[in-house]
Amino acid sequence: MTTPPRPPDDDPTTPYNTPGGYQSPPPGGYPPPPPYGPPPGYGPPPQQYGSSEDRMWVMVAHFGGAAAAFFGAVWLGWIPPLVAYLSRGQQSPFVRAESLKALNFQLLWTIVGVIGYALICAGLGFIIVGLAVLIATIFGVIAGIKALNNEPYHYPLTYPFVK
């Protein structure tokens, strides 16, 4: 390590002290660190949103919609959320809200898929149908995973047909 250059009139045998250099520590030492606690942002586990039967119906709505959209080439994605809504929606507000979200999402992408099937003659329909199947499947699986973790999920790219 090199030392800074000395002024021309300075004695080279004396130690060089730069202004604002090292300061001595405060007398008595430093105070002890604060006690350790959990990192910020971590809290209690999430609140349960209903019984295990409610969670099962919510997963039927989300995962079933994704599977039906994939295997039914986007035609059938709306059926599992409708079944969940009609079978358990009147008894559980959680199932009602989540199945309505899934139903509205799958209805929108079924309509997009039908438009894509109509445009197959123009050559553009294959792309539209493929995108509709992928979007309905991917977001349905993401919503199902959130339901599995007992978290509500809000679908992007949706329209509230059923209220």
UniProtKB/TrEMBL annotation:
The chain crosses the membrane at residues 56-79, 100-120, 126-145. It comes from the Bacteria. Residues 1-49 are annotated as: Disordered. Its main location: membrane. Residues 13-23 have a biased composition (Low complexity). It comes from Actinoplanes couchii. This is DUF4870 domain-containing protein. Keywords: Membrane, Transmembrane, Transmembrane helix. It is found in: Membrane. Signal peptide: none annotated. Residues 24-47 have a biased composition (Pro residues). It is a multi-pass membrane protein.
